[in-house]
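Sequence, C-alpha cells passed on for absentees:
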Amino acid sequence: MTPNSENALYIGGEWQQGAGTITNINPSNIHESLGDFAQASNAQVKQAIACAREAQPIWEKTPLEQKQKVLQNIGDELIARCDELGRLLSREEGKPFAEGRGEVYRAGQFFHYYAAEVLRQMGETAESVRPGVQVEITREAVGVVAIISPWNFPTATASWKIAPALAFGNSVIWKPANLTPASAVALAEIIHRSGLPSGAFNLVLGSGSEVGDSLIHSTEVDAVSFTGSVDVGRKIAAATAPNFVRCQLEMGSKNALVIADDADLQVAVEATIAGSFSGTGQKCTASSRLIVMDGIHDAYVDALTQRIAQLKVGHALDEGVFMGPVVDEKQLVSNLRWVDRARELGGELVAGGGQVSLEHDGYYMAPTLFINTQNSWDVNQEELFAPMACVQRVYSLEEAIANANDTRFGLTAGIVTTSLRSSVLFKQQAKTGCVMVNLPTAGTDYHVPFGGRKESSFGPREQGQYARDFYTIVKTAYQRPY
C-alpha cells in the first residue's frame, strides 16, 4: 500500500488508517492544507509495541554489513531528495527553504554517521584479579525504544534518535509532533524501503496526551527518548520510573550570548542574528538573552538594530526570506504576550514587537529586540521560542558569566571576544552542556555529544559515539577456560 495522509500510520511493516485525522496547516499560508493526517488509537499503539518487540531480536541479530547498508540507504535517499523534502518541511513547519533543505541533508548525515558506527562496535577485554579468569565487556541493544520528537526540527531531531537506536540493534516506535506529520510520513516511507525487518520501525501519529501517554506508561517499552518541554519531560520521568524504563530527556533552555567589550562588532552582530532569529527563534539553542558589556553596548545595539531592519520576513518558500512564520496561531499568541510582558516590566522596544501582515495570511512576527532588561525578569528566565531577544547591560566579565549562569537551564551559552583569557574563563565557568566562542549559540555538529545541564537535559548525551550510552546495555562476562 502506498502511504497518504489518511493511512499515514506505519505498524509492523504496513500502512494503516487511524482512529481519526487532524488537518495539517501551512503556517506561511493558513488557507493551504497539506492534508488530513491519521491519528493512532491506543489499540494501534499497543500493536506497534508488540510488533517492535517481536522484530527487535531479529534486527539485533542481523549481520553487521546488512545493518550498515540499511542505514546507508536511508541516508542516501534523504540527501538525494533534500530539495523536495526540504520544501515539504518548510511548508508545514515554516522555516525558510534553505533551512528546511539543510535540515533534511543533515538528517541524511546522521544516518550515514551511524551506518559507519554499526561497523565500529567493538567490545573490550580486561585482566581479572583472579588468576586464570578471562573478562569481556560487550554492549547489547536496550530493546524497544519509544522516540518522541518535536516539531521545530521534525526530520533532524527524529533522525539523530532513530539512527543510533537502529544502529545499536533496537527496534523503534516513533511518535512525532502533530504539527509536522507530513515530514514524518516522508521519513517513514524512506525507512520502509530501506530493508528493515517488518516491525523494527513503526510510526504512530497522535497527540501526546493519548499516543504519548500510551508509550511512556507501557511496561513493554524499554527506553524513551524525548525532546520537548520541561513539563512533559517531568511527566515522562515520573511515568517511566515505576517501570524502571530508562529515559533520555532534552527539554527547555534559556541560552545567553555574552558580548565582551573587546568583541569584533560584526562578528557579534552576525552571531546574534543567526542565534536569536534564524528558525524564527524556534530553536532550543536560540540565544534569547544578550548579555552585553558596557563598553560596547551602545555600538552593538545600534548595529544590531540596523541589521534586524534588513531581515526579510515572508513565506517560507519565497526567495531571499530570512525568517518565516512561527509554527501556529497558539505560538504567535504566546509570543505577542511575551512582547507585552517585556514592555510591562520596563523593557525598551527598539525593533519589531508585533505581527507582520503580508500577501499570504500566515503567522508572521517581526524579529523583536528589547534593551534595558534585567536578568531576573521572567522574559529572561523562561523559554520563549520566539524571534525575540532581550539585551541586558553588564559591567564586567565576571558579572556577565554570573548572569549567564543565573538560570534553571543549561543547554548552550556563547561569548564573542578577541581575548584568549576571556574565552578560556567562559568555557571553564559556563554551566552549560555546550559552549560557543565567536559563534552563534545555535548550530552543533552531528559527530560529537549534544545535551545540557540542570533542567535542560536528563540522561545520557545524544549524538556521536556518546549515543551508545543510552541505546545499549553493558554486559560484563567472566570465564575460566578448561
Notes: Residues 86 and 101 are 4 Å apart (CA to CA). DSSP finds 14 helices and 22 strands in the chain.
